Amino acid sequence: MEKDHNDKNVQAFSKTAIDKQKMYFCKLACLINNGPFAFMVTDINGSIEYVNNSFIKLTGFKTEEILGKSSSILKSGKTDPLIYKKLCKKIKKGETWKDVNPITVVHEHYNNLSEKRIIEIMASPLFDENNDFQGIVESWRDITARIVQENKLIESESNLKAIINSGDQSIILLDKDNRILCFNENFRKEVNKRFSLKVSIGDLFDSFIPKTDLDILSKYLNKAYVGKSILKEIQVDNIWYEYYFNPVINHDGKYNGVSICYRDISERKKAQAVIEHMAYNDILTDIPNRRLFDDRLKIALAQAERENHKLAVLLLDFDYFKRINDTFGHAAGDMLLKSVASRISGILRASDTLARLGGDEFIILAPSINNFDMVDRIAKKILDQFKRPYFIRNNELNITASIGVSIYPDDAKDSLELLKNADTAMYNAKNEGRYKYKFFTKTMNGNVLQRFKMEMGMHHALHNAQFQVYYQPIHETKTNKVVAVEALLRWLHPDLGMILPERFISIAEETGLIIPIGEWLIETVCRQNRQWIDDGHDPLKIAINLSARQLREPDLADFIKKSLKDNNLDHTNFSIEITETIMMEEGSPAIDTLTKLTEMGIEISLDDFGTGYSSLGYLKQFPIEFLKIDRSFIKDSIDNEADARIVRAILSMAHSLKKKVVAEGVESEEQLQYLKWLGCDQVQGFLLSHPVSKKNIHNIIKESENKEKSI
Description:
- There is one protein chain.
- The chain is of the alpha+beta class.
- The chain has 4 domains: 10-148, Beta-Lactamase, CATH 3.30.450.20; 167-269, PAS domain (Beta-Lactamase, 2-Layer Sandwich); 281-440, Alpha-Beta Plaits; 454-706, EAL domain (TIM Barrel).
- It has an 8-stranded mixed barrel, surrounded by 6 helices. It has a 5-stranded antiparallel β-sheet with strand order 2-1-5-4-3, with helices on both faces. Strands 7-6-10-9-8 form a 5-stranded antiparallel β-sheet, sandwiched between helices.
- The longest helix is centred in the first third of the chain and has 33 residues, at 2-34.
- The protein is elongated and about 175 Å long.
C-alpha cells in the first residue's frame, strides 16, 4: 500500500513537473513566436525547419511556403555569396556569426514586389546532446528604420560641419568650466597660425588664449554664461573681430556653456574707415569737407557760448579761377587747388579747420578768438600764400583770392547766419577790387539785398524790353564826318528810371546774365545798322563793348558772324571794344576769341588805354586796330603838361605801331584843336554829342553826311 502510495506521489509529481515544463515551453514558444526578433531554424542541410510569426511578417512568406524549403529561397541574389560561405564556415566551427546586411525580401503574396530592408542577422550553431552539429538558429531583426535615422544623423552632422566650416567664422563651444567641447576648422587653423598650438577637445580655453585677449573677452563670456547674447566688435592684437557670444542651455533649462562665433573684420573696418573719411573729407584735397566743417562749427559754437569766447569764419574764393581751367585744363586747376590747400593748412593753428566747400571755395574756422587783431593776422597770413607763384606742370601760375570774415557772436549766433554773412563779406571784397579780405558789417546786408533786387530786375528787363541802346558818334578829325557810333547800354527801370551800366554790368557778369544781355545787344545793333542802311545812310560802323565773361564764350565769334549774316551786313559795319583789364585777366581764351573775330575782318579797339599796367606787352599779343585814350588824360591835357606828354607819347607809339587812335572825353574846343594838331585820328565826347537815342543819332548821322565842316 505504501509503495502504491509512493508511486502515485511520484506520478503526481512527474505530472506536475511535466505540466510546468509544458507551460514553460508554451510560454517560451509564445515569446519566440511573437517576439520582436524573427527566428529561423535550419537543419544540417540548410532546410528550413522552423520560423516564427515575426519571421513570416518580416519576409512575407507563408509558413507552408517556406518550411522544408532550402534557406536559399531567402536569397535575393544581391548579397555577396562569400558572406554565406563565411557564415557556414564560422557556424560549423561552433562560433556565433553576426552581420548587418541590406537584403531584398521577396513578398510573393504581394505580386512579387520587393522591398529593400536592412537586417541584423545573428546565426548560432545548433548541437545535440552528443555535441554533434545539427543545424543553425538565426535571429533576424529589421533595423532599417534605425539605420535610416543614423544615416540622417550622419548626413545632418556632415551638412552641419560643412556649413560651419564653409564660412569665414571661427566657432567654438565651451562648457561652464571653459573647456572646449567642439570647434570648427577655422578655429583650429587660427589657433595654429596665431599661437602655433594644436587645439583638442577638452582643452581649457584659457590655456592658449593670451591674458590680454582674455581680459578683453572675459567680461562678455561672463555675461553669456548667465544667459545674455552679445554681438560686439573687438580689437585684439591690432586685428578687428566681430564676436557673437551666445549662452548654451542644457536639457533642464540651465545655462552651462557658451558658444563663440567670431570672424576677422579688419578689411571691413578699413573699408568703413575709408568710406567715413570720404564722407567727411574732400576727395581732391583731402581736407575736411562741408559736412565735417559743419560738425566742428557746431561744437565750436557750443564751446564758445560756454566759455564766452569769440570765433571767426573766413570764407575764401579764388579770383578768376576759371581762367586757369580754361587755359591750362581742369587737371591743372585741381592740382592748384591741392597746392593752395596744402599751403594754407601749413600756416593755420592746430585748433583751426580748413575745409573745401566745393569748386574754388574754401572756408576756415578759427575758434577761441580773443580780438579782431588775431583774425586780421590770420586773414593776412592766408592772403600771403598767394604772393608766391604756384608751379603746376612746368607752368608758373599766379592766382589771388578774396576773403570774407564773420565773427561770433558779433555778426551772428548760429552757423547758417555766420556762413551767410561771411559770404556777403567775401563778395564785398571782390566788388572792391579783389585780393583782399573784408569783415562783415550790417550795412553789407543792404548791399546784398540791393544786388539781389538788381539781379532779379535784369531778368525782368530782358523779358519786358526795358533795355535800350544809346549811341555816341565818333568823328574823323580830318573830314568831320561821323565814321562810327559806340553802342551804349541803358536800363529804363519802371521805378528807378534810367540806370547806367556802371550800376549793373558787374552784377550781370558775375551772374552770367551778361551773356543773354550781350546777345540781345549784338542782335539789336545789327538790326539798327541794317535799318539805317536801308534808309539811305552810308555804311556805318557800330562799336560795342565786350566783357570778360563774354570773351570766355567759345561761340561768341560764331554768334556775331550769324547776326551780321542775318542782317546782310559786312564786317566793316561792326567793331568791338575791350579793356586792358580783360587782356591781363583772361589770357589765352581772350586771344582765341579775338583772333577769330579779326579773321572775320572785325576791328578791335583797346578802350581806356593808359589806365592799366603792362599794356605795351599785350599790343603785340592781341590783334588791336585802335587805341582809345582814356578821358582822364584828355581832360587835363591842355593845362597839365604831364597829361599832355602822355597823350603825345600814346599817339607817337600807336602810329609807329601802325595803329589808329581815338580820343575819348573831348569836352572843349581847345581839346579838340589840340588833338587835331597832334594828329589824333578820331574823337568822341560831349563837345560833339552826348550818348543819344536811335532817333536822335539818326539826325546827327544825316547832318554829318550832308555837311562836312571844319571843326
